């Protein structure tokens, strides 16, 4: 599912179920990280690249595990590409839809649209509920 603000083509909010870690050792790394709270060490983050985190590690500005009101422990990744490139926030959380399924919720875009809609996108990301 993807949503873009009316008339905006360079920022979007997305929600999808992915199983990119199915059958791989990265699933255990992801589970271990979710059992912690706070900032994630870059070396641990490298273990999830590129199987889950497909943003080059050098462009990640923040990575932590934080509680989500619906999904519980959630890996939160913020990134910015250099030179006015894209930026974003991506949440990864365990899904109940399948054994290795993950929710991937992202808000991504280009400046200035990304910053213009950031507060609304962040509120939407934290208010997502299972039905």
Task: Walk me through the structure.
- The protein is of the alpha+beta class.
- The chain has helices at about 25-35, 40-45, 115, 120-125, and strands spanning about 1-5, 10-20, 40, 60-70, 70-80, 85-95, 100-110.
- The longest helix has 10 residues, at about 120-125.
What's a concise summary of this model?
With 131 residues, the protein is an alpha+beta fold.
- Rounded mean pLDDT is 93
Low-confidence stretches: none
Number of helices: 4
Proportion of residues in β-strands: 35-45%
User: What radius of gyration results from the CA coordinates?
Assistant: 14 Å
SSE pattern, N- to C-terminal: EEHEHEEEEHH
* Main beta sheet strand tally, sense and closure: 7 strands, antiparallel
Widest sheet: strand order? 1-2-7-6-5-4-3
- According to DSSP, the number of beta strands is 7
Structural class: alpha+beta
Q: What level of helicity do the residues show? A: 10-25%
Q: Judging from the principal axes of the Cα atoms, what is the shape?
A: globular
Primary descriptors:
131 residues, alpha+beta, 4 helices, 7 strands, 21% helix
List the helices and strands and how they pair.
Layout: E1 2-3, E2 11-18, H1 26-34, E3 38-39, H2 42-46, E4 60-68, E5 72-80, E6 87-94, E7 102-109, H3 113-116, H4 118-127
Antiparallel strand pairs: 1-2, 2-7, 3-4, 4-5, 5-6, 6-7
């Amino acid at each position: 599912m993807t949503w873009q603000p009316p008339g905006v083509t360079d920022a979007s909010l997305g929600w999808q179920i992915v199983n990119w870690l199915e059958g791989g050792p990265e699933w255990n790394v992801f589970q271990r990280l979710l059992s912690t709270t706070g900032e994630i060490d870059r070396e641990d983050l490298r273990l999830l690249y590129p199987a889950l985190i497909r943003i080059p590690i050098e462009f990640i500005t923040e990575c932590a595990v934080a509680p989500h009101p619906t999904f519980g422990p959630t890996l939160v990744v913020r990134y910015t590409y250099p030179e006015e490139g894209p930026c974003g926030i991506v949440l990864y959380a365990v899904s109940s839809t399948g054994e290795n399924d993950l929710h991937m919720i992202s808000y991504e875009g280009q400046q200035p649209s990304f910053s213009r809609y950031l507060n609304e996108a962040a509120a939407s990301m934290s208010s997502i509920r299972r039905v």
